[in-house]
Design a protein that fits this description.
- The chain has 289 residues and is of the alpha/beta class.
- It has 2 domains: 128 residues, Translation factors (Elongation Factor Tu (Ef-tu), domain 3, Beta Barrel); 145 residues, Rossmann fold.
- Helix content is 22%, strand content 34%.
- It has 6 helices and 13 strands.
- The strands form 3 sheets. The chain has a 6-stranded antiparallel barrel with strand order 1-2-5-4-3-8. The chain has a 5-stranded parallel sheet with strand order 11-10-9-12-13, sandwiched between helices. Strands 6-7 form a two-stranded antiparallel sheet.
- Helix 5 packs across helix 6.
Length: 289
């Protein structure tokens, strides 16, 4: 499904409640956790779904407004308003730019700069929700494999919290593999902000991080190497009949993961067969931006 296929006709007003930078000031990457109060309770969403953000124009390339999707990292009830109960949601946004492949010019990401510049009290227009949330297996004995890159960590943050705080724990193995370009960019897992440290004492939880090797900061994040270091356990999880795998991040991470899993399987053909089985069993979920 393409971005143009998503309807943005039904719109709601959201007020910025908080905008907190979660990467250190010395980091080149600015990633913010933005909390929005959506008026009237008209946005019934769950973790893992996406909301649309409408950025009013006119914009550089002639379009009157700009539309982008962001994954819901957390959601809860907010204070009541005149229109009914508000819904409070969190999204994780990285201020980004891109280079035009034809002209070579660098352009600011319209939606990311717009959102990162918002301050408490500012109002924006949101739409949605879209897509399917992360679905948990019925049995707590099932293994959960989570692989995230960059802001793909956002839905996993709330997902892990849900497992151990709301559900009272998980019996199966919960493994999180997360990558970033530098240690400073490890959103929610750096010295300033590390939510996952709260769960390191849980017997079933373990997290593994991967960063690009300095001084080659533009090299791909070596998620495949981190998976390979733990390939015996990871492949055992993949082969289990009830394991659920969740992948979140940029589209460019998918070929890297396919290569890593193909190495574990012994060939690309064997891995594609196993991946197809996971997808057919609704046990492989991708949230790709």
């Amino acid at each position: 499904m393409k971005l143009a296929d998503y309807s943005s006709d039904q719109r709601l007003t959201a007020t910025v409640n908080q905008s907190v930078r979660i990467t250190p000031q010395e980091s080149d990457a600015e990633i913010r956790n933005i909390t929005l109060d959506v008026e009237g309770g008209g946005l019934a969403t769950t973790i893992g779904q996406s909301i649309g953000v409408v950025v009013p124009g006119p914009h550089e390339f002639g379009h009157s407004e700009h539309f982008r999707l962001y994954t819901v990292a957390n959601t809860r009830a907010a204070n009541a308003s005149e229109n009914g109960s508000n819904t409070q949601i969190e999204i994780c946004v990285k201020r980004c730019s891109y280079v035009d492949e034809f002209s070579g010019e660098r352009h600011k990401g319209i939606a990311s700069h717009f959102l990162c510049d918002q301050r408490p009290g500012d109002q924006i227009i949101v739409t949605g929700p879209y897509g399917l949330p992360f679905k948990l297996p019925e049995e707590k004995s099932a293994d959960l494999l989570m692989i995230g890159l960059g802001t793909g960590i956002a839905p996993f943050r709330a997902f892990v919290r849900h497992l151990y705080e709301h559900l009272g724990g998980w019996e199966g193995r919960v493994r999180l593999f997360y990558g970033a370009k530098s240690g400073l960019e490890l959103a929610y897992m750096n010295d300033q902000q590390d939510d996952f440290v709260n769960y390191y004492d849980e017997e079933t939880f373990a997290a593994f991080t991967a960063v690009s090797p300095r001084p080659h900061m533009d090299d791909p994040v070596p998620l495949d190497e981190q998976l390979s270091r733990n390939q015996e356990e990871v492949w055992d999880m993949v082969l289990k009949h009830d394991t659920h795998a969740y992948i979140a991040g940029l589209e460019g991470m998918l070929p890297q993961l396919d290569i890593a899993f193909a190495d574990m399987a012994g060939s690309a053909e064997k891995w594609q067969r196993r991946k197809a089985e996971l997808i057919a069993g609704q046990r492989w979920t991708e949230l790709i931006y």
